[in-house]
Amino acid sequence: MSAPARRVPPSAWLLTLLVLGLLGLWGWREIGLQSRERADGGRVESRTVAGWPDLEGDSLFSAGRETLTPEEQGVLVAKLRARLGSEWVRSGEAILTFRDEAAYRRFLARAMHAGAELTGRIDGLLAVRVRVRDYARLIEEMAENIADYVSVSANTLVTTPPPPKEQRAEGEVRPVEGGLLGLIEARGDARERGRGVLIAILDGGVAPDAAFGARLRYLDIGYGVVGLAEDTRHGTAVAAIAAGAAPDVPGVAPAAELLSIRVFGPDGKSDAFSVAQGIVAAVDAGARVINLSLGGYATVQVLGSAVDYALADGVALVAASGNDQVERVAWPAAYPGVVSVGAVDAGGRQALFSNSGETLQLTAPGVGVRTVAAGGGRFLFSGTSASAPVVAGSLAALLSQNPELDAIQAADLLVQYSNDAGVAGTDPDFGRGIVNLGWALERATPSRVDPALATQDYDAGTRTLTFVVQNRSGRAVGDLRVAVRVGTKDYQASLPELAAGEATRVKIHLESALSDAETPVKATLLLPPGMLDQNTANNELRGLIRGRP
Q1: For residues 135 and 77, is the Cβ–Cβ distance under 8 A?
Q2: Is 234 a catalytic residue?
Q3: Which candidate in 234, 270, 418, 427 is catalytic?
Q4: Is 385 one of the annotated active-site residues of the chain?
Q5: In the chain, how many domains are there?
Q6: Active site residue 450
Q7: What is the pLDDT of residues 30-73, one digit of tens each?
Q8: Residue 196 lies in domain
Q9: Which one of the listed residues 274, 305, 385, 394 is annotated catalytic?
């Protein structure tokens, strides 16, 4: 999880960033995200996300160029006008970033003559937001001061993930309802979880509620503190999952402080600049965890710089992967160093709406989670928007118990002590696994004994069943065995001693090939006599396998 961060890019590659920023401004393409089979057999429909910025097009500048010809300026004017008129951006808005403080201040001094109206600024990122009034004059301004610029981009739109539509038959999906804390094994006295930790909720605004009390405060970056009813409903639900303290819908870290930053405008939409501004404001206000239950399929340099700004201060960013059933994690979840979160149901099955991808870090319960509605009601909330605050609250709980850690170190621990799921090891549907806060909190508690069967894979070509066994205990365990029944045949394997937190793969080679029909498999983890297991529910796996894939 940890990654080197920067506040201002090194000067050696400023011109390169300018090139990329300009290419992101003019070059667009469509990427078809193809259908596939989920690990659990569910079908993902084919989806296309249009408007992704193409950062690999032909460069309009060569290294070391300090001028633009009139012909080149004319081409850029036309492309800039078209780009800022796209449906995927704030109409007519551009984001400009600068190479150093002096260049930034020079622009601010001449901004009124640059053909654009200054509508926002982020001093810590040397970035401004402008509404273009005169395209030709703005390009002329760039040409006259090209060495000052790092990037020029459109202000791309950001939204909350759309309400998901689960495609499994009714009865095959297990809603979380009020069982969230049990599913992440956050048992025991939770009253102190999160104390001393500030979680920032960048969303549509959080409504005051008894579930938050005096722990909730607000920071206005220009949109007020609450807005449209649906936006506030979303932000309130997210905050309550992370840190609500209502007896009937307890949040993960009920003692944490909450900072609500509304980043959505009166049209119910957000944008890259507003999210970047919210991230910087949250860091400067002392937030240690930032929850981003929002995203989009286009990004710009300023948002990446805001992520770097947070990481440089040891602040963890937790973001929803998206609800579009595609093999692509939305931005800002896709940035390296961000804890990207997908959704599972109460049975640990991946929600079909949950986006997948190689950059996915974790999954968490996100189907039918009971939470607080604006106005004090209760409702069942689904989506990766619900999964992200489970992780944000878990990080706050870890930090309150381990004050010596920074939030990025806590995120590393939460990823390390997660329940393996799906294909053994890291995979695009579950990331490193399903969050297990209890294990992370008690990872060094010797009295915790919890060996577990985590995943099951079958390779029809080699007739090999592979199981992952995780020792989720606070001490070493030995003399474990796995008993497997495939159809009517029994197999057994012994395991080596597993240190606390260690995992191992157990392979069972079947004696004969299976038929093409589905064959039932049952695997049971057997403990030595006298060993008291804290959670016997994870000692058994059942499934169906075929002779051919």
Answers
A1: yes
A2: yes
A3: 234
A4: yes
A5: 3
A6: no
A7: 222 223 344 444 433 333 344 444 332 222 333 345 777 889 88
A8: 180-441
A9: 385
